[in-house]
Amino acid sequence: KDYLLRHCKYLIRKHRFEEKAQMDPLSALKYLQNDLYITVDHSDPEETKEFQLLASALFKSGSDFTALGFSDVDHTYAQRTQLFDTLVNFFPDSMTPPKGNLVDLITL
After folding, report:
1. Which residues neighbour 37 within 8 Å (Cβ) at sequence distance 6 or greater?
2. Which tens digit of pLDDT belongs to each residue from 60-97?
3. CA distance 39 to 42
4. What is the dihedral of CA 78, 81, 87, 92, to 10 degrees?
5. In the chain, where are the structural domains located?
């Protein structure tokens, strides 16, 4: 239970850091050092390495995403939707939105 809570916090804060890094790198750096740092399991070498690599997001330009044909809004929406889908996997089906198409549930 504690692992699950910590991991969900980590995923949310990691995403928030990545958004901040695009808009305000200095604020993102402080967020990385203070808020995101405490959610990382530093005894896990893989998670520690992933955390250390996050700093590279501070040096990416915003044009990296627009070159792929995504506007900032589209990219942010897609990233947040992906985060939501990842978090939903940690909950039982009774607590999540339907996975199928809602139209299929309607009987005619």
Report:
1. 51
2. 765 554 444 556 677 788 888 899 888 888 888 888 77
3. 9
4. -140
5. 2-105
